[in-house]
Amino acid sequence: MQAFTAQRTAETLDALWICEHPPIYTQGLAGKAEHIFNPADIPVVQTNRGGQVTYHGPGQVMGYPMIDLKRAGYFIKEYVYRIEEAVIRTLAHFGVTGHRVTGAPGIYVLLDDPFAHALLPQRPTKANMAGGADPDFFGLGKIAALGIKVSRNCTYHGVALNVGMDLEPYSRINPCGYSGLQTVDLSTIGVSVPWQEAADFFSLKLASHLAP
Question: For the domain 2-8+17-209, what is the CATH superfamily, name and number?
Answer without folding.
Answer: Bira Bifunctional Protein; Domain 2 (3.30.930.10)
